[in-house]
Amino acid sequence: QYCFVCGESGATISCWMTGCRRKFHLPCAMEGGCVTQFLSPYRAFCWEHRPEQAVQAAPEENTTCLICLEPVGDQKSYGTMVCPACKHAWFHRGCIQAQALNAGIYRFQCPLCRDRSAFLSEMLIMGIRMPFR
């Protein structure tokens, strides 16, 4: 099986969408815009079938990531995410992933409003991995 991201053989992760034949390596997932969910049933999606955030919000002009303080752009995308509870906390996918790895599943929360339940659920669905610690 060949990875649709890097083109190398040995791809073992398949897109969950019925009829999609894309396969990829786990390390290639982020580069290819894929989402791998680290909660049961452990689904993975290619860039075309990945889940999108349901929040109907767009960042205002000059909105910055709450973690790195760099601009997030002017629209939702794979690389930018928003808190589903407050809808004002914008961050880069890589920044919130780093925070999740440091905080762990029991301490992970929105950096702005401190919501845990809606935020945690949304981040798990969107492919943010959190260790149990």
TrEMBL record:
SUPFAM superfamilies, per database record: RING/U-box
Keyword Protease in annotation: no
Source taxonomy: Eukaryota, Metazoa, Chordata, Craniata, Vertebrata
UniProt xrefs under Pfam families: zf-HC5HC2H (PF13771), zf-RING_2 (PF13639)
PROSITE patterns named in the record: EPHD, ZF_PHD_1, ZF_RING_2
GO cellular component, one term: nucleus
Residues covered by the PHD-type domain: 1-50
Protein name per its UniProtKB record: G2E3 ligase
Gene Ontology MF terms in the entry: ligase activity; zinc ion binding
Keywords: Ligase, Metal-binding, Zinc, Zinc-finger
RING-type domain boundaries: 65-114
InterPro entries linked: EPHD, PHD-type_Zinc_Finger, Zinc_finger_PHD-type_CS, Znf_PHD, Znf_RING, Znf_RING/FYVE/PHD
